[in-house]
Amino acid sequence: MAEGSLPVVIVGAGPVGLAGASHLLARGLSPLVLEAGPEVGHAVHAWGHVRMFSPWRYNTDAASRALLEAEGWAAPDPEAYPTGAELVRDYLAPLAATPALRGRIRTGAKVVGIARRDHGRLHDGASRDAAPFVVHVEEGGAMEALEAAAVIDCSGTWGAPNPAGAHGMMAPGEAAQGARIAYGIPDVLGTACATYAGATTMVVGAGHSAMNAVLDLATLAEQAPGTRILWAFRRPLDAVNFGGGARDGLAQRGELGSRAQALVESGAVTALAPFLIDRIAQDGAALVVAGRQEDRTAEVRVDRVIVAAGFRPDLSFLREIRLSLDPAVEATPALAPLIDPNLHSCGTVRPHGEAELRHPEAGFWIAGLKSYGRAPTFLMATGYEQVRSIAAALAGDWVAAREVHLELPETGVCSTEQVAEATGSCCGPAKQPVLVEVAATAGCCAPAPKPQAKGCCG
Ligand SMILES: Cc1cc2nc3c(=O)[nH]c(=O)nc-3n(C[C@H](O)[C@H](O)[C@H](O)COP(=O)(O)OP(=O)(O)OC[C@H]3O[C@@H](n4cnc5c(N)ncnc54)[C@H](O)[C@@H]3O)c2cc1C
Questions:
Q1: Could you give the CA distance from residue 9 to residue 359 in angstroms, rounded to a whole number?
Q2: How far is residue 58's CA from residue 456's CA, in Å, rounded to a whole number?
Q3: Which residue's CA is the closest to the ligand 1 atom numbered 17?
Q4: Domains plus CATH for the chain?
Q5: Is the CB of 158 under 6 A from ligand 1?
Q6: Which tens digits make up the pLDDT trace of 406-448?
């Protein structure tokens, strides 16, 4: 570390950032967690209505549990599956309130720049590695410069969703129609129910977030007549990875894919596969989503679009840090081949730590969800192992830094073949691509129904 008396700054008070702080404390080091949102677990809070696919036993970190248990915390049932909101309420919030961590977390503190003191990115010299970091923080409308001995960026990717456009950029018209386009997983059975009930919604994306959105809309459709669901995939349907089903080591995750696939096969959800989006425009009350199905152009009329096409890391505040990132995945070159979805259909990744996460900038790491760059398969348990290893390295315990402490559950679809080949064997018989023209329906149900206990608008 550059300067012993300075804190180790952690960017983001998500599950991995807080775990990092716990491991640093256990090593006698001094963490300072800076969180942009008004509360810890701010990103998890945003998907609080979603039930997690991993049970509690995979969702808590060992060093954090030790801090909680010292305060008499009763661990939740290890086999139960919490929602995101329960993860915050029953784990992250009590963890942040422990005497050990309280006072080491600043909320409402957004990191907008990180650099090495007196060194721009270009400036070499023996002094570079010895210089502390300078972290620019926006808090309450003011900007402050803090110094840090080391920095662990655990800021996640929730704030930078991928757009709907075919080319990885926003499609023309996408920004202009933003009022009717949601990114991520809106709470369609709860707070956003009135928006989606009775409407025709196109879900864009193929991962777990898209599956969650489609399943929630399907539940809504059972209760709200006229609710229709289109699901747009980049790939032909026979190349879509719906997961390992019963073979998945995480039963809930396997079931998520199986249920989503069943909805497509039953026709309850209309698959547009492949469908690449070129333009989104308004036509009267409808949104017209124009795209291509292989070599044909097509237009689909809907009321709403949910883009659940994954996320990308925000590298904007790391412009002065010397990063080494794989050009496709935007993870470190050592990690990228382990998680590249072009090479792996599955998402089972061997545990890794400080060595794989290292950048040319000594004393700087990206950990947690953001460390996976654009790859979609991150598990919290992986992040806990990452920060355990980084904390060990910062304490100079290189033996512990290199150890692997984790067995991850299998996804049940593991292969290192190309995805298109690998998924053909686990997705059942190939489906013919379907393309439909759908007339827009009235945008919204009548008076906003009250969300019920389970979040359904009924
Ligand atoms: C819907 C959904 C369901 C998931 N379910 C599971 C599951 O069942 N099991 C599992 O293991 N994983 C799951 N994941 C994946 C992953 O484990 C979670 O996303 C997890 O929250 C990642 O933790 P993190 O701490 O790396 O990032 P985050 O939880 O995203 O936390 C990052 C924090 O950094 C803050 N931040 C961002 N930018 C800044 C900044 N510039 N300055 C300061 N603070 C900043 C954010 O506000 C946020 O609080 C799921 C992900 C999603 C999206």
A1: 16
A2: 28
A3: 380
A4: 8-155+349-402 (3.50.50.60), 178-309+419-424 (3.50.50.60)
A5: yes
A6: 766 665 544 433 333 222 222 222 222 222 333 333 222 222 3
Q: Which residues contact 251 (CB under 8 A, 6 or more apart)?
A: none
> Which residues, at least 6 apart from 293, have a Cβ–Cβ distance to it below 8 Å?
272, 274, 275, 276, 433, 435
| Ligand 1 mean position, distance from CA 43 (Å) | 5
CA distance linking residue 266 with residue 87, whole number of Å: 33
Atom of ligand 1 nearest to the CA of 111: 42
Helices (H), 351-434: 354-357, 380-394, 398-402, 419-424
- 35 close to ligand 1 (CB < 6 Angstrom): yes
- Closest ligand 1 atom to 378 CA: 15
d(CA 196, CA 188): 6
Residues 153-181 have pLDDT tens digits of: 999 999 999 999 999 999 999 999 999 99
Read off the tokens for 377. 């398969």
User: What distance in Å separates the CA atoms of residue 138 and residue 152, rounded to the nearest whole number?
Assistant: 18
Best mutation site among 52, 253, 390 for ligand 1, i.e. most ligand atoms within 8 A of its Cβ? 52
- Protein residue whose Cα sits closest to atom 41 of ligand 1: 111
Burial of residue 306, with CB atoms counted within 10 A of its CB: 0-12 exposed, 13-18 middle, 19 or more buried:
buried
Amino acid identity of residue 17, one-letter, is G
d(CA 362, CA 358) in angstroms, rounded, equals 8
pTM score of the predicted model: 0.89
